[in-house]
């Protein structure tokens, strides 16, 4: 079946403080360009959700739609812009996406129609107390930090978004919306390099990684 990569890139980048985050450059290439270039060779089309008034960088193998007020709204607009059989949703803010991750995800999708890349949690986890100190420890066994890309049968993800819209349900990712329908979401071991560039510290890490990988 045909596969579309859908890239939400319409965030404002408030925590980073450098303007619309997808356009922030790491070693001369924006987060958006890095993400699209990683996806394009492996899919039939790439569609990007952009902040209102912004345009795609010249030469990118993608087309654009205007994003929404939330990530969830941006993804719904992207879903409505394609009739592909499968969709891969990938945050522009995770620019270090390898071919291996894309292949592993694509292999996992057909079984239930839904799969996400995720990382087993390595740190000790604790819920803060009412005073903001050490509260209740939480066993990390069996806990995963959810990343992107996430892959779905397009009609399944569309149904999940429509149900969430009817219920006024908000989620920070797409797999959560599908799981809510009772559909099994496969977990595919991801990659620490798929961290989301969120804070100025993340940008330093990204610069270091880009220097090593672009060499
Ligand atoms: O804000 P956060 O880093 O969680 O955003 C994750 C991804 O969703 C980013 O790539 C961002 O550009 C995108 N996004 C979007 N539309 C919004 C908010 C975020 O496409 N309204």
What does this structure look like?
It catalyses: 2-C-methyl-D-erythritol 4-phosphate + CTP + H(+) = 4-CDP-2-C-methyl-D-erythritol + diphosphate. 30% of the residues lie in helices and 25% in strands. It is of the alpha/beta class and 215 residues long. It is globular. The termini are far apart. The mean pLDDT is 96. Residues 8-11, 21-22, 49, 67-71, 74, 91-93, 196, 198 line the site of cytidine-5'-monophosphate.
Total number of helices: 6
Largest sheet: 7 strands, mixed
Series of H and E elements: EEEHEEHEHEEEEHHEH
Task: Determine the N-to-C terminus distance.
Answer: 35 Å
Mass-distribution shape:
globular
Calculate Rg over CA atoms: 17 Å
Class from helix and strand fractions = alpha/beta
Number of separate strands:
11
What ligands are attached or bound here?
Answer: cytidine-5'-monophosphate
Mean pLDDT: 96
Low-confidence stretches: none
- The percentage helix is 25-40%
Strand percentage lies at: 25-35%
Strand order of the largest sheet: 5-4-1-6-10-7-11
Keywords: Isoprene biosynthesis, Nucleotidyltransferase, Transferase
Organism: Deinococcus reticulitermitis
GO molecular function: 2-C-methyl-D-erythritol 4-phosphate cytidylyltransferase activity
Pathway: Isoprenoid biosynthesis; isopentenyl diphosphate biosynthesis via DXP pathway; isopentenyl diphosphate from 1-deoxy-D-xylulose 5-phosphate: step 2/6
């Amino acid at each position: 079946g045909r596969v579309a990569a859908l890239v939400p890139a319409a965030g404002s980048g408030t925590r980073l403080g450098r303007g619309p985050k997808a356009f922030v450059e790491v070693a001369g290439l924006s987060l958006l360009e890095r993400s699209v270039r990683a996806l394009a060779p492996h899919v039939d089309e790439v569609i990007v959700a952009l902040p209102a008034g912004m345009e795609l960088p010249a030469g990118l193998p993608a087309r654009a739609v205007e994003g929404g007020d939330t990530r969830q709204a941006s993804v719904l607009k992207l879903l409505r812009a394609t009739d592909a059989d499968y969709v891969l949703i990938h945050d522009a803010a995770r620019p270090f996406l390898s071919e291996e991750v894309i292949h592993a995800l694509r292999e996992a999708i057909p079984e239930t129609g839904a799969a996400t890349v995720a990382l087993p949690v390595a740190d000790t986890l604790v819920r803060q107390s009412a005073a903001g100190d050490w509260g209740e420890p939480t066993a990390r066994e069996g806990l995963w930090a959810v990343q992107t890309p996430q892959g779905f049968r397009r009609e399944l993800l569309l149904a999940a978004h429509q149900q969430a819209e009817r219920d006024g349900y908000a989620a920070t990712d797409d797999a959560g919306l599908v799981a809510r329908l009772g559909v099994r979401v496969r977990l595919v071991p991801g990659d620490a390099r798929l961290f989301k560039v969120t804070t100025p510290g993340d940008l330093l890490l990204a610069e270091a990684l880009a220097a090593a990988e672009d060499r």
